[in-house]
Design brief:
The structure is a homodimer of 211-residue chains. Chain A is mainly α and 211 residues long. Chain A contains eleven helices and no strands. In chain A, helix 2 packs across helix 3. Chain A binds a DNA duplex (18 and 18 nucleotides) through helix 4.
DNA sequence: GTCTATAAATAGATAGAC
DNA sequence: GTCTATCTATTTATAGAC
């Protein structure tokens, strides 16, 4: 076996290859779902043999788990409690909602694979879907909910269950992203920039909950 | 071949059997998706042999198409333009949004299979997903959008793109249903009645768009 | 680390008896 | 109308050479 500089050129290092397979699989799984994607397709798209896929991941399920784990657990997503922190401290309500929405919409637009993957795993009752829910959604509800409660105590927002407000707000932006990436890719129904959407949603919600 | 009363007791009539297979398949497809459900499973769940499934539906795809077609096309869904018609004529804005939301949430709760099926077909890029979009979603945007435009002309609603308002409003209710049936079945995050949700969403939106 | 070849299991679909 | 048996293709996963 020759160990020279060249080996790293012609052959990929183990970790590198592993990551490459992971990325290819993520794209395919997000497009066609877990059961709809074959290991052969993944291997072909990655330019390796099927055996190589199984060398890096013992089973197809393990590969799937590694993807969700990487995306949902390893800090690839911004910590919800840290978003719009400065606006929160200024108690600039509009900025809080606007910045949060814009960040989410941009993220969804740049990385629609992840949303599709999450939907697939939710529909397939994958355990890691629940994990994402615990790890991320619950955090958003706590973080944004506590801000809303604070503004209620300030006498600025109407008295109502803060979690309902979060549900309404998150609904606007998630549904907008979902709609854009699943049903209306050509933006036939509504073609607006993320900035405009963020502005409109923030304004509707803000007027909706302000006294 | 014996044709007596008894034959109808021991053996199902063709159409009846067809409908039964259709219903069983709908449940399984909604649970595990098109590719995740085998014809063998469908046959077993319906209590017939696989050959019987293929007698009624030439291919698995044809079976899937028949389900979506039946659900999305054959008037099993209320015509969006007819919902809350009376409230619309009274120009009772709150009632319009409240009734529309309550109807949708109840429908989603009683029949979560259809929403799951739609999501699956959207993720799998099934042509019938697009058909549903044309047939149903577009209608809602036109119907509700024109009501909003009317109320803007009345000087009651703020000037903004009516379609954005529809997007925000539909988002609240769809996301609420989606959340309840996909991620938070135990209602750990937010456990409210459909009436309460409809009330809150209608109020937030109404205050959000009223001058 | 990577390949080819192949085993083992499962999928959709059909044939033909009753 | 319904069944059993079976065919063919595909899919996951492994063995073993290089």
């Amino acid at each position: 076996m020759i160990r020279t500089e060249e080996t790293t050129v012609t052959r990929m290092a183990g970790d590198e290859r592993r990551l490459q397979i992971l990325r290819v699989a993520e794209r395919l799984f997000s497009q066609k779902g877990f059961r709809g994607t074959t290991t052969k397709e993944i291997a072909q798209a990655a330019g390796v043999s099927e055996a190589m896929v199984f060398r890096h991941f013992a089973t197809k399920s393990e590969l799937y788990a590694a993807i969700i784990d990487q995306k949902a657990c390893q800090g690839n997503l911004p910590e919800p409690s840290c978003v719009a922190l400065e606006a929160r401290e200024r108690k600039d309500d509009y900025a809080v909602f606007y910045e949060l929405t814009l960040l989410a919409l941009n993220e969804h637009e740049q990385n629609p694979e992840f949303m599709r993957l999450l939907l697939h795993s939710a529909l397939e009752n994958h355990e890691l879907s629940q994990m994402f829910f615990e790890r991320f959604v619950v955090t958003i509800y706590e973080s944004l909910g506590s801000y809303i409660a604070e503004r209620q105590r300030d006498g600025v927002f109407r008295q109502m269950d803060p979690r309902i407000v979060v549900r309404a707000f998150v609904g606007m932006m998630i549904h907008h992203s979902l709609n854009n990436s699943l049903w209306d890719k050509e933006r036939r129904l509504l073609n607006i920039s993320n900035e405009e959407a963020a502005h409109s949603f923030a304004e509707i919600l803000l007027r909706g909950v302000t006294i």
